[in-house]
Amino acid sequence: MAQTNPPFMSGVPELLLLRLLTQREMYGYEIVKAVRLVTSEAISLGEGVVYPVLHSLERSGALRARRKPVNGRTRVYYSVTPKGTQRLARLTAEWDRVSSGIQAALGEPEHA
How many domains does the chain have? Predict the structure, then answer.
């Protein structure tokens, strides 16, 4: 079984959460399930990873949280702010740069 949060995943939860939340507002556990779904279960983020990232993004102004009553309970729904959209653009550009470099390194070896 794959490791839930391998060390090389640093920064990936923030990128995924911002991306998912640009599509629609969601609550924490819904995000956990959505990450598994959109990554075809290649990435599984536990609540112990998701909630600290959500709180950090909210504190930085990248996310907005609102409480909403649902079936007699209150859920906290998160949505991306303009600052979060900018953060997502920077993270996406950085991810593209790094993943291109990794793809190049994993490709066919060059013969001297």
Answer: 1
Q: Is 102 a member of any domain? A: no
pLDDT reading at 8 higher than 70: no
Distance CA 22, CA 33 (A): 16
Token pair, residue 99, equals 């993943």
Quote the tokens at residue 76.
Answer: 């906290």
Range of the domain at 15: 7-94
Amino acid of residue 84: G
CA angle 49, 93, 18 (to 5 degrees): 35
Could you report the per-residue pLDDT of 57-67, keeping only the tens digit for each? 999 999 999 99
- Whole-number Å distance between alpha carbons of 12 and 44: 11
Question: Among all chains, which residue has been given the structure tokens 């702010």?
Answer: 81
Using left for φ > 0, alpha for ψ between -120 and 50, and beta otherwise, residue 65 falls in: beta
